[in-house]
Amino acid sequence: MGIARLVKRGIANPLKLRKLVTEEVVRHNIGRELNKLYHSRGNKRSWNPRGIDIFSEDWDNLVILDALRYDAMRAAIDRRGLEWNITSRISRGSQTPEWLYANFAGRQLYDVVYVSASAMPQYLGVENGDSKRQQRYGFNLDVHELRNIWMDPPEQAVETFIERDEADMVLPAETMIEPALEAVEDHPDKRILIHITQPHDPYLGETGRSLYDDVDAPWQAKLTGDLNVPVSTLREAYRENVDMAVEAAAELVEKMPGKTVVSSDHGEHLLDRAGPIPTREFLHPDKVYTDELVKVPWVEFEGRRREITAEPPVAQADETKNRTTEEQLNALGYL
Predict the structure, then answer these.
(1) Which of 207-211, 218-222, 319-323 has the lowest mean pLDDT?
(2) What is the mean pLDDT of the chain?
(3) SS3 track for the chain
């Protein structure tokens, strides 16, 4: 329910308004919308102006681990005994569509090959949809090549545990290693951006999988009272996904030639307090620029630099190579 509509109903019936705002979900939604208005300066900002331009940073390979918050990455490095020097950057978005729009819109990036386990670059940057998200964050993705690995998922792909079409699959982080290395081999003169789905939900670890026995959206179900597990269980499920992502990134760092950076598009709220309205927030709503959502890890690994060129792409022999159907996108939940 929108805030304006809620106010109108409250004026008409103050007792009903009082009852509504005592409900946890309603209080959360009101707090979220007020925080969005605050961070976006009344919806005048379409993305976070404090965030970095990822293409102005120095890298040959950029590994994006989706929805990885800074402190979670730091803890994973410690758990695994990795000798990684972690720093941080501020992201331009608190959600992937916002991050994509802020970094790619209106730019000609012929020195970039985008290798993606996420459907978002295709849906927002290539397809012409008419959803609210497309209208808000749609753009023209103008890179040398977009490799949609999710369109032809490997055998290890996992269903999202939601009652949808069989096309609704998630690629485990390890399955992105080979496509990333193939992209470097095919395009040694390009910057390679590898977009790995994890630690973004759904959670693929032992703890995580158990959450989907009765619910489709564990964090939402926890908020509504439909999932009777402690918050620590959901946070453990997220941690398992973080470890999967970091393991894959570690292997890529060892094998990819050139200077590699491991980072994220945005972070994650784990039912901790947002601000300035102190509602307990979960996942990653757009236009909420808290540290948990826009402070992202940044780990650099020096290597023998590759010579990068920005020649325009050659026309594809198969024009459908990077296309998808409306039916596929609908099955994936993006329409």
Answers:
(1) 319-323
(2) 86
(3) CCHHHHHHHHHHCHHHHHHHHCCHHHHHHHHHHHHHHHHCCCCCCCCCCCCCCHHHCCCCEEEEECCCCHHHHHHHHHHCCCCCCEEEEECCCCCHHHHHHHHHCCCCEEEEEEEECCCHHHHHHCCCCCCHHHHHHCCCCCEEEEEEHHHCCCCCCEECCCCCCCCCEECCHHHHHHHHHHHHHHCCCCEEEEEECCCCCCCCCHHHHHHCCCCCCHHHHHHHCCCCCCHHHHHHHHHHHHHHHHHHHHHHHHHCCCCEEEECCCCCEEEEECCCCCCEEEECCCCCCCHHHHEEEEEEECCCCCCCCCCCCCCCCCCCCCCCCHHHHHHCCCC
Residues 6 or more apart from 42 whose CB is under 8 A from it? none
pLDDT for res 334? 37
Looking at residues 27-55, what average pLDDT do you find?
Answer: 89
The model carries a pTM of: 0.86
Q: Which residue has the tokens 């020097």?
A: 85
Strands 158-159 and 169-170: antiparallel
